[in-house]
Amino acid sequence: MTFYVENETEVSFPFDTKKLVAQVAEAVLDSEGCPYEAEVNVLITDQEGIRMYNREYRGIDRETDVLSFPNIPFKKEADFGIVEENEADYFQPDSGELILGDIILSADRIYSQAQAFGHSVKREFAFLVAHSMLHLCGYDHEVSEEAKVMEEKQDAVLNGLGITRG
């Protein structure tokens, strides 16, 4: 699997961001039964940057903690059969990996939310990656039932990796 991680900020993290992205993303893909090797791009930006991306791509002029841009229009969550219909649209020609999409994280929000929720920066970073990976797999949280499913899946992945709220 290929995970491209770019940090366009001056903010540093007390862990290897690429390693953590890979660990969490692979755990999500395993839990969702993804039968393919995958590619995911992750950009770490600041509050101003994420607000700009949110405004430009979603028409929402405010800051947020994470943005997810799925490449696959899942009809049903984690139903990877859809990619076989249009392989040229979903697979990297050079590597043959499934292009899942892009994640944009706010470094500022990672730190502030970790403090507000009373857990580590690593846990907040991992939580946002897990959350976003589920979006890339077709999940959403527009209604409370969907939100509950996502929360349970996020907790299961993070607990399985030993990344807890402590």
Secondary structure elements and their pairing?
Elements: E1 2-7, H1 17-31, E2 38-45, H2 47-58, E3 66-70, H3 87-90, E4 98-106, H4 107-117, H5 121-136, H6 144-160
Parallel strand pairs: 1-2, 2-4
Antiparallel strand pairs: 3-4
Q: How much helical structure, as a percent, in the residues?
A: 40-55%
What is the end-to-end distance?
A: 29 Å
Summed over residues and divided by their number, the pLDDT gives a mean of 96
* Principal-axis shape: globular
Which structural class should the secondary elements be placed in?
alpha/beta
Largest sheet properties? 4 strands, mixed
Strand order of the largest sheet: 1-2-4-3
Low-confidence stretches: none
Number of strands: 4
Oligomer: single chain
Share in β-strands: 15-25%
Number of helices: 6
Keywords:
166 residues; alpha/beta; four-stranded mixed beta sheet; 6 helices; globular
Would you mind describing this structure in some detail?
The protein is α/β, with parallel strands linked by helices and 166 residues long. It is 45% helix and 17% strand. It has helices spanning 17-31, 47-58, 87-90, 107-117, 121-136, 144-160, and strands spanning 2-7, 38-45, 66-70, 98-106. The protein has a four-stranded mixed beta sheet. The longest helix has 17 residues, at 144-160. The two termini are 29 Å apart.
